[in-house]
Design goal:
Strand content: 35-45%
Radius of gyration: 21 Å
Number of strands: 8
Strand order of the largest sheet: 4-1-5-8
Number of helices: 3
Structural class: alpha+beta
Shape: extended
Largest sheet: 4 strands, mixed
Distance between the termini: 7 Å
Length: 148
């Protein structure tokens, strides 16, 4: 990816289009969710003016959402430069053959008594985990991109 500077939003749009094309080339055709690290916020929420114009009517985040096949652009709160790499984007095809939620145990409330029956205790428990899947040839509809 090209590192954002605030004056190069077209580079980010081009990078996302290239990410989508790479997934297309691997037979993943969307719809896609674009996740980003926390350091992208200041650039994605900045005004977007194409080709240096001064009549910004949208943000860069809005422009990326307008790309065909991109459902939304969302921040991952724990994907930071401290625990990953600066300026990270992850594009995921949102279909069950790529990623699905596995329900190991549905949401349930457990109740028990303590202190001789004078106190009731409650816990809410569940097991929900994501499962990332690949096709027969090992291709997965998840693309991870970061700055060099």
């Amino acid at each position: 990816l090209t590192a954002p500077t605030g004056s190069n939003p077209e580079s980010t749009v081009t990078d996302v289009l290239e990410m989508r094309d790479q997934l297309y080339n691997n037979n993943f055709f969307g719809p896609f969710m674009l996740y980003h690290s926390t350091d992208w916020d200041q650039f994605l929420d900045n005004d977007y003016a194409r080709l240096g114009g001064n009549n910004a009517t949208m943000t860069l985040r809005d422009r990326l959402r307008a790309i065909d096949g991109v459902m939304d652009v969302r921040r991952l709160d724990y994907l930071t430069a401290a625990n990953s790499h600066a300026f990270t984007l992850v594009m995921v095809q949102m279909t069950p053959d790529v990623a699905r939620a596995v329900v190991g145990m549905p949401v349930q409330t457990v109740q028990w008594e303590s202190m001789g029956g004078m106190r009731l205790n409650f816990k809410v428990m569940c097991i929900h985990v994501p499962q990332i899947r690949a096709d027969y040839s090992g291709q997965c509809g998840v693309l991870h991109a970061r700055t060099a």
